[in-house]
Design brief:
72% helix, 563 residues, 25 helices, mainly alpha
């Protein structure tokens, strides 16, 4: 079968993505445009963009492959990845938007009033983003290899180049439009061939060729050793991991207000619930037409190979090309979102130099190239972990780190910086150990090996417990301005209350400008009395971390300045 149509489809998707991104470039003028699209994205457009970003290589290819190989147990993946947005809707979406942050490190510094907490959060954002980028590049290599026989690195390099070209010109403004376009393309790419496949099943008189897939193992849940622990661990990772993913959370910063964030999340729930029926159907169809892929170790390619197993001639080529276009859109949309979130953190906290708007955008673009290059290098040296499995482990890291910090930080005023940092280190350390052991093929025996295979059931409760106990042990160090921060997070925007003057763009500009003038007396909060949180020095008695977040403390007999 000729693969010309599939190659043309991949090229067209890349060109269309660049064209949509170029249109977004016309709208990108400020730092706020680059980081959060000036917080002006409507709920419908944002829901499409979030869904386009969230439905990654694991959703498009990996879920179908795991359903084909392991059956009903893997239904927890699409269920958990969708249900995670329900928790976001109830607990996180609106307060996070009201925080006014650009990134998760911004939120950590606002809530915990600690520069150390910000640095730890920045490091974790980079780690989670890189881990999530690896399966996206792996999926791209798998797609191009399946379609053309080209080496895996070729597809990975193509995605890396297109992602860079999408992100570099316009930041979040461009990415939002590209991701919304990708979502509808992916939906069309999976839905259209499904009608043809279902018709073929209806006309087929013989039963499915199950091959190496045994019926009992496929339809009965909780089969195999330690299945109960592994299932509960998977549920925890997928349910709680969503709210800890930096590229997911950053999209809620782009809504106009907290109410719009909730409406966006509700729309995402509806959209994802419908979409995830499709890869499950493809996995079930794989049992009829391509069960031999399990024994061959190519279950992840079932979506791309189904057309050639069922049909011949131009119809098979056309359906394969359509699925290839959707798969490539999946890699591009998720990768661009990840790169934007990680590059935003790098440009603010790790590679920042120069003052002013132009230097800030230049630093963001340099960070983008760094993120893509490092991710591509890690993909080339990582072991051949199945795509959905790699994403599952990344969810475990997110669930063990940022999820506890967000839930406790938003809903419990007793959380301290020391408690949050301790929990981030404990949960992140255990879950990252599991990721490294799996990604690079380092196996272990016994219960320790089982925990390393699926760590969330241990690492998530441990992270929550550590944060609570460490905060109780350091209750005298509760952030000084936590009451005002809680007002900012929970009070609706239309109520006229003192919410402080936190604004990350202003903090960024003034921090850079003052660092250049006098590193020992930086004033990132915009207050003349404030000092650099990295030195810990203050003047006029103001709290250093609070001021460094861009908020100005209230002194007796003074008024609070609004930013």
């Amino acid at each position: 079968m000729s693969n010309t149509a599939s190659i043309v489809a991949v090229v067209l998707v890349s060109i269309a993505s660049l064209a949509v991104g170029a249109f977004g470039l016309r709208l990108s003028r400020t730092m706020s445009d680059f980081y959060v699209a000036s917080r002006g994205v409507s709920p419908v457009l944002n829901a499409s963009a979030i869904s386009g970003e969230y439905l990654s290589a694991a959703s498009f290819l990996g879920v179908a492959g795991l359903i084909l190989a392991r059956g009903v147990d893997m239904l927890w993946l699409p269920v958990g990845w969708t249900a995670g947005y329900l928790l976001l809707l109830v607990f996180v979406a609106a307060p996070l938007r009201r925080s006014g942050a650009y990134t998760l490190p911004d939120f950590a510094q606002l809530r915990l009033e600690s520069a150390v907490a910000r640095r730890v959060s920045s490091l974790l954002v980079v780690v989670i983003g890189l881990l999530y980028l690896i399966p996206q590049f792996q999926g791209a290599g798998l797609t191009l290899r399946t379609l053309t026989g080209a080496p895996s690195w070729a597809g990975q390099l193509v995605v890396a180049l297109v992602v860079c070209l999408n992100v570099l010109p316009g930041g979040m403004r461009s990415v939002t439009l590209v991701q919304a376009f990708h979502y509808w393309l992916k939906l069309f790419a999976l839905l259209t061939p499904l009608f043809f496949f279902l018709g073929a099943v209806g006309s087929r008189r013989s039963g499915p060729d199950v091959g190496a897939v045994f019926v009992a193992d496929w339809v009965e849940p909780l089969g195999g050793d330690n299945a109960l622990y592994l299932t509960y661990s998977l549920v925890l990772a997928t349910f709680f991991g969503t709210m800890g993913l930096p590229h997911v959370v950053v999209r809620f910063y782009t809504n106009p207000d907290g109410r719009a964030s909730r409406r966006t999340t509700l729309a995402v729930l509806v959209v994802l619930s419908g979409f995830y029926l499709l890869p499950v159907a493809y996995g079930a169809l794989g049992r009829w037409f391509a069960s031999d892929l399990v024994a061959a170790g190519r279950a992840d390619s079932v979506v791309l190979e189904l057309p050639s197993r069922v049909f011949d001639g131009p119809l098979a080529e056309g359906l394969t090309a359509l699925l290839a276009a959707g798969a490539f859109a999946a890699f591009l949309s998720t990768s661009t979102g990840l790169v934007v979130s990680v590059a935003g953190v790098l440009s603010q906290d790790l590679v920042r130099w120069g003052g002013g708007h132009r230097q800030g955008i230049r630093t963001f673009r340099i960070s983008t190239v760094i993120v893509v290059a490092v991710s591509l290098g890690l993909t080339l040296v990582a072991a051949g972990v199945p795509v959905a499995r790699a994403v599952e482990l990344t969810f475990a890291v997110a669930a063990s780190t940022f999820c506890p910090m967000l839930l406790l930080g938003i809903w419990w005023r007793g959380l301290t910086a020391a408690g949050a940092i301790a929990g981030l280190l404990v949960g992140g350390g255990l879950s990252m150990g599991a990721v490294l052991s799996t990604t690079f093929g380092l196996g272990s025996a016994g219960w320790f090996g089982i925990v390393m295979t699926q760590p969330a059931a241990v690492s998530v409760p441990l992270a929550f417990t550590t944060m609570v106990l460490a905060s109780l042990a350091t209750r005298s160090r509760v952030p000084e301005h936590v009451a005002q921060t809680m007002v900012r997070l929970h009070a609706p925007e239309h109520i006229d209350l003192n919410r402080g003057s936190f604004h990350p763009e202003r903090w960024y500009r003034r921090a850079v400008r003052t660092d250049e003038a006098s590193p020992e007396s930086a004033q990132p909060g915009g207050s003349r009395d404030a000092t650099d949180p990295r030195t810990g020095a203050t003047s006029a008695g103001e709290h250093p971390a609070y001021v460094s977040g861009g908020m100005t403390a209230r002194r007796p007999g003074t008024t609070v300045r609004r930013g």
